[in-house]
Amino acid sequence: PVAAGALLLAAGIAVLNIRFGALVTGVFLAVEITTLVVLIALAALHPARSLGEVLLHPVMLSHGALVPTSFSVLALAGVSGLWATAGANWALYFAEEMHEARSRIGRVIAWTGALAAVSIAAPMVLLVMGADDLQGILAAETPIATFLRRSGGPLLSGAISLGVVAAIFNALIANIMAYGRLFYSTGRDGMWLERINRFLGGLHPRFNSPVAATVLVVMVAIAAMMLGEKTLLILISGNVADYVLVSLAILVGRRHHSTGRFYKAPLHPIVPLFGLGVTAAAMAADWMDPDTGRPSVILLTGLFLAAMAYFYFRLRETSARWLVADAAPPS
Question: What is the full DSSP assignment across 93-144?
Answer without folding.
Answer: GGGGGSTTHHHHHHHHHHHHHHHHHHHHHHHHHHHHHH-TTHHHHHHSSSHH
